[in-house]
Amino acid sequence: MRVASAPTRDAPWFAATLIAVALGYLLLVLAMPLGAVFFEALRKGADAYLAAFADPDAHAAIRLTLLVTAIAVPLNTVFGLAAAWAITKFDFVGKQMLITLIDLPLSVSPVISGLVYVLLYSTHGWLGPWLEANDLQIIFAVPGIVLATTLVTFPYVARELIPLMQEQGSDEEAVAATLGAGPLRTFWLVTLPNVKWALMYGVLLCTARAMGEFGAVSVVSGHIRGLTATMPLHVEILYNEYNFVAAFAIASLLALFALVTLVVKSGLESRFAGEIAAQRRA
Amino acid sequence: MTAAVVASRRFREASPLGGFWPAFGFTLFYLALIVVIPLAALALRPWELGIEGVWKVVTSERVVAALRLSFGAAAIAAAINAVFGAIVAWVLVRYDFPGKRLLDSLVDLPFALPTAVAGIALAAIYAPNGAIGALLDPYGVQVAYTPLGVMVALVFVGLPFVVRAVQPVLEDLSLDVEEAAATLGASRMRTIAQVIWPAIAPALLTGFSLAFARAVGEYGSVIFIAGNLPMVSEIAPLLIVIRLEEFDYAGAAAIGLAMLLASFAILFALNLLHARLTHSGRI
């Protein structure tokens, strides 16, 4: 037990009860589903498990997920840096409104995030006729999946950077500018080193969400096996075909990636607490 | 005063730093392209049905049932997480026990695990032949393919929000205040009720709001366990998907817009409540 002065120490039975409740809750709600993924995946043995990865459609799904992530995450990273630079280093009218708009996608249902692009770009959408005339396809194709993923993961990098850079202020940058450094040089040599861990943290969260996004992608993808099915959609297709072992096998790969994310995340949190968690302390 | 007036007339304060316009310009352009214009389509598209048409879609029996389920189950799930999340946060901050760090990292699992993966795992556990489903089955309790299943999925999805909102507040709460309360003769229960509770209440509400907002729109983890029976266990986001598959775009947009406006209204009310709590909670 923690060493605390007597009046603030809880009775041992009280502490033990609370620990048991918390432990039970986390095991029931979190650990069981996680365990179930691996249990179901390995239920029919290692051969059945590995067979799921021999399927060319599974390869296509993995490739597509990596491709979409490789486009959406860098886009949102560049955006996050630009937005954080403008918002935290300058004062302008409407700043709070801009921050609210950046956070907006967090409170929008993933299904709606997909729906909005269907409304814009599908055959029956506003720009549909024009796209068709120019032989471009966005919905039920890869560009739509990229757009929907980008919208869902839009705020992740910006949200990590803005509170930290706000706290750091712009004194160091002002010194660099006064000494004759241009904005790019100032950013590269002064700002970036100060926020690198927060940046990594934001990119990590953004990547995890991008790889696992389901609702938004499901709406725009059309579920074409081997063509527009990302890994989570491939899991759904297999599951609906009652091919449970294969569905859980692909799912276990995503779960493994989630576990790696958690390990890196808690590593960053404990090692660089002061350099990433500005908003936690705020 | 005059300085403020002058400043308010200018769009931007003077700064020795450069690079404002490229960064600001790109931010606005990208925001418009990815977020604002698409959401504008959602706000405008339903009205091709006319006001009456939109009203008819939104108040139809099936849509009302779906909205009630999405909002109701989200509220119950967030409330469950508020109670247990507070206990988890308290335990993680105040007590030491083996495996604590591992448990602390595990709390974020729902942020990292793709929702579809969580969905099929929960369906496997709570199906009548699943690990927990089989235990409940003899008592006639069915979780999978009922509204109860929807709630179970939303509890999973919302778990980290309350814990992560309350945890830093408890960490900052110095033991001195509690010691002072005890020295002045307050019982432990009274200290918890009058010192600790007012301090964590706003954070608890923040966590509740975040968990609720996330759960209302949740799709991936729910559809596998819900059974998706119209009028019974069909959530609003799924109904949007169904309307899209029927090429009823305006109808889908109307449901989406109704959902979005309702959740913004609720979050706004919760924000007002939060402002009152932080105001009265000051020591």
What are the key terms here?
heterodimer, A: mainly alpha, MetI-like fold, 2 domains, disordered N terminus, B: 283 residues, mainly alpha
CATH topology of chain B: MetI-like fold
Count of discrete alpha- or pi-helical segments spanning 4 or more residues of chain A: 15
Count of spatially separate domains of chain B: 1
Uncertain stretches of 5 or more adjacent residues of chain B: 1-7
The CATH first-level class of chain B comes to Mainly Alpha
Radius of gyration of chain A: 23 Å
Strand portion of chain B, in percent?
A: under 5%
What does this structure look like?
The complex is a heterodimer of chains A (282) and B (283). With 282 residues, chain A is mostly helical. Chain A has 15 helices and no strands. By secondary structure, chain B is mostly helical. At the A-B interface, helix 1, helix 3, helix 4, helix 5 and helix 7 of A face helix 2, helix 4, helix 5, helix 6 and helix 7 of B.
Short description:
The complex is a heterodimer of chains A (282) and B (283). With 282 residues, chain A is mainly alpha-helical.
Reconstruct the topology from this structure:
The complex is a heterodimer of chains A (282) and B (283).
Chain A: H1 12-42, H2 46-51, H3 56-89, H4 95-103, H5 110-121, H6 128-133, H7 142-152, H8 156-168, H9 171-178, H10 183-212, H11 215-221, H12 231-240, H13 244-271, H14 273-276, H15 278-281
Helix pairs in contact in A: 1-13, 3-7, 3-8, 3-10, 3-12, 5-7, 5-11, 7-11, 8-10, 9-10, 10-13, 12-13
Chain B: H1 2-9, H2 20-44, H3 50-58, H4 61-94, H5 100-106, H6 109-112, H7 115-126, H8 133-136, H9 147-172, H10 175-183, H11 188-216, H12 220-226, H13 236-245, H14 249-280
